[in-house]
Amino acid sequence: MNTEPIINYFSNISPLNKAEINVIKKVFKERRIKRRQFILQEGDVCKLNTFVVEGCFRMYFVDEKGKEHNIQFAVENWWIGDIGSFHSEEPSKLYIEAIENSVILQIKKKDQLDLFVNYPKFNQIFRVFTENALVAYQRRVLQNISSSAEERYLDFVKRYPYFFNRISNVQIASFLGVTPEFLSTIRKKIAKS
């Protein structure tokens, strides 16, 4: 099992000592996920927090009409999970699907809570991670209520240039809340200017 990526991730926030590195190796479990395989489906309780070592995932919601709405993408060194379901232990309304063959490291809620108690540095690290995620979600909500589709697309291109060879235009359109046809129109307009 290769825990080096997550050890580096944590160490970039706050350097780890030998005991902290050893506990990481113990509590995180590696899984190999095939493209189009789910690590969470609607109705399941999210029991694992997931760190992406290799690959790409999407988290999405399916509305009453059967339309998919992408909420988050995650690539290497990103976290993905239904935070609400993970903490409340209630069934999720979300799906998490691999867009590519992937390798992930997962931790159970009990093990994560034990980390916080027995190794307080992880409480700080996860707080930083959670605050960053909250900032990103808040930015996205503000953008959705105050920016045009073109502005949202340009911001997406600027913030996440590494997604474009990995995520289809249909997936990007869903994330931005527009149809693929409208996204195509936006891209043509931008290319002309």
From TrEMBL:
Signal peptide: none annotated. Pfam families: cNMP_binding. Residues 12-110 form the Cyclic nucleotide-binding domain. It comes from the Bacteria. CDD domains: CAP_ED. This is Crp/Fnr family transcriptional regulator. It comes from Gilvirhabdus luticola.
